[in-house]
Amino acid sequence: MPRLWEGAGITIKITAIAVCVGMIIGMVMALSKLSHIWPLRIISNIYIECLRGTPLYVQILLFHFGIPGLVNSMDGMSGFHFDVMTTAIVVCSLNSGAYIAEIFRSGIQSIDRGQMEAARSLGMTHTKAMQYIILPQAVKRVIPPLCNEFIVLLKDTSLLAVIGVTEIMKTGQIYITTTYAPFPAYIGVACVYLILTFTISRVVNYIEVKWNMSSK
Amino acid sequence: MIEVKDLYKSFGKLEVLKGITETIQDQEVVCVIGPSGSGKSTFLRCLTLLEQPTSGTIIVDGVEITDEKNDVNKIRENMGMVFQRFNLFPHMNVLDNITLAPIKVKGMDKAKAEAIAMELLKKVGLVEKAQAHPDNLSGGQQQRVAIARALAMNPDIMLFDEPTSALDPEMVGEVLNVIRDLAKEGMTMVIVTHEMGFAREVADRVLFIDGGKVLEQGTPQELFGNPQQERTKNFLAKVL
Fold first, then answer.
1. Mutate: best of B73, B78, B82, B147, partner A, most A CBs <10 A
2. HEC profile for B150-190?
């Protein structure tokens, strides 16, 4: 089944971009949520609650069909639409950003209060203390949950089949329509996901061990 | 000089400091003693604004630090703080722990900061540990590094919050020796401590805090030798 590997390429691409963008969004949202500035806290809370509180499946459909439908009905024209890859990357990034924000927030809060106090007592600003003292320690602690989020997102991209993104799941479905053989198709799909997630967890494990050793 | 006027601090409904007025002169060594929960650590933490006072004023070398218009970071550069639990940065080695603030806050160049750090490590007797990580040091060593780290900012005032309370008994001496040396050099210091023998030896003045107020104060001879208040007598009878 050579097409499954092509699908795997698309799955990996979407997941990798979404995790990278999601980490940037997640960091900004985590810092906003912990900020003294209340409008930032409110914005990040709304973002996190909305994206964690609704299914990814619904988010995909809402973004891909709902928003263009609304735009087209408002300006009386038809034809505005999102490319399927645009939808895939935007929705997956926003979705994982919400989960990663919570991972970063809990990581930052898990650092002992004395670290911030020691940094501040040396005359560092809150920002510098975050940059040099809190975040470097927090980042190490969030690697395992971040790895978990990476794996969850990779599997969840299978939902993108509904809008026709030819990732792993969709290629399996296409295979079935031509062969009428669901078992080999789905078992093949499952195996490809398993290979990918297993590889990720091994690689992250390796990085974690290396990193822990280098810090001693 | 530190001038504290009518300092009050509440955590929610709990009033921890109930009006402290105190002046600490340059080069004076003041030890603060008192039972647990009396507010002595809170008093110390207010002096460097790690706790925001509920009301009252604190003036350090003529600058009112409780006035929000003044830059708290600038003020803290001049006041070193040593914590009960050391609070070294575990992701950095000893040298980086000491040089970080001079480099990032004062903009000192790395070579100069490291030279100063090595001088300070010599002073606290830990030159050979410059490359070690905090995890690999004993409690006493960690606390000595923490003192060196605070001194690296070249402060005029040092604050110590129960610096030996988290140490094994055999480590207490080495830390007290470092503080004793600082006292001899004329550093202005406020030390919250349970080490009565040490307080008696190094302090110019001892404050006895209980229930959020300074109940009694005086030279070590006065306070330990001839306490006036019943509460002070009871406390000293238990700890001496």
1. B73
2. HHCCCCCEEEEECCCCCCCHHHHHHHHHHHHHHHHCCCEEE
Distances (CA, A) of A104 to A15, A30, A84, A198, B47: 19, 6, 29, 24, 32
Distance set, CA A138 to CA A10, A94, A132, A133, A144 (Å): 31, 22, 11, 9, 12
Are the C-beta atoms of residues B114 and A159 closer than 8 Å to each other?
Answer: no
Amino acid at B240: L
The pLDDT tens digits for A33-91 are 999 899 999 999 999 999 999 999 999 999 999 999 888 888 776 788 899 999 999 99
Torsion of the alpha carbons at A93, A95, A100 and A103, rounded to the nearest 10? -170
- Give the integer Cα–Cα distance in Å for A96 and A89: 10
Whole-number Å distance between alpha carbons of A142 and A139: 5
Cross-chain Cβ contact B153/A140 below 8 Å:
no
Nearest to B87 among A114, A124, A137 (CB): A114
Identity at A123, one-letter amino acid code: G
Domain ranges of chain A: 2-215
Tell me which CATH homologous superfamily contains domain A2-215: MetI-like (1.10.3720.10)
CA pseudo-torsion sign B88, B89, B91, B93: negative
| Global ipTM | 0.92
B14-24 and B63-64 beta bridge pairing: unpaired
